[in-house]
Design goal:
alpha/beta; six-stranded parallel beta sheet; 42% helix
Length: 247
């Protein structure tokens, strides 16, 4: 195994409304330095969109590294790759998307009416909507009941950002369209989806597979990697990093 000093560092960017520490098991055995980056108030407040958040992270973490982004964090990673390709040794997205909400020319996203209802719910009862979103993280995956139990500490700790920033970053999910970034990735890229993801249609992999990045689907995985899915993701990530020739 490579030493801590020789193995590439990894930046792990969390998703909407959840701490990046939810992905800690995925990088628990990473041989290099690990930076966990939560999309919290410090990153979101005052930002104009995903590009601003990516720029802030690039400024905070200027050393070369592999970047991994979960869900909305994947959009941050792909934006960072476009803005600073020399800073990213590779880009990995996990259960992410070039565009979250469906449109006339993109049928792999959440229906616009469904998203609007959730947005309205966030305005009416933010904590109830946020808790419902967390519950969706484990729907569809293997052993859903165990997944709900695993969510308990994250539900108890509350969202990592304020209500205003929650709404702001939710609006970015509707507004951000990164199809150009994903079609022409600025750095070597790997996109991983779970075939039981309730939030993100894994069939987006069929569309993205011809766009110049590696694509992988993990059997039985929902939106939040747990259990055996963690090992499957780790295997894919290690294989991808080895292919970069930077160890």
């Amino acid at each position: 195994m490579a030493s801590l000093s020789s193995y590439p560092a990894i930046v792990v960017v969390g998703g909407w409304g959840v701490p990046a520490t939810m992905l800690q098991p995925l990088v628990a055995d990473w041989p290099g330095v690990v930076h966990l980056a939560t999309l919290n108030s410090g990153l979101v407040a005052g930002a104009c969109g995903i590009d601003d958040v990516a720029a802030r992270l690039l400024n905070r973490l200027p050393e070369a590294a592999v970047w991994l982004g979960w869900s909305q964090g994947g959009q941050v990673v792909m934006s960072a790759a476009r803005q600073a390709p020399d800073q990213l040794q590779g880009a990995i997205t996990l259960c992410s998307f070039p565009r979250f909400v469906a449109s006339n020319d993109w049928n792999h996203g959440m229906a616009a009416d469904t998203f609007r209802q959730f947005h309205d719910g966030l305005r009416t009862d933010p904590m109830r909507a946020w808790k419902r979103f967390l519950a969706l993280q484990v729907m569809g995956g293997s052993n859903e009941k165990d997944g709900r139990r695993s969510l308990a500490p994250w539900l108890a700790s509350g969202p990592p950002l304020g209500i205003e920033e929650l709404e702001t970053s939710l609006e970015w999910l509707a507004a951000t369209d990164q199809r150009a970034d994903w079609q022409h990735p600025a750095v070597p890229s790997l996109h991983i989806w779970g075939d039981q993801d309730y939030l993100v249609d894994s069939h987006v992999a069929d569309q993205v597979s011809g766009w110049g990045a590696e694509v992988s689907r993990v059997s039985g995985m929902g939106h939040w990697p747990r259990g055996s899915a963690i090992a499957c993701c780790q295997d894919e990530i290690r294989r991808f990093v080895a292919s970069l020739g930077i160890e």
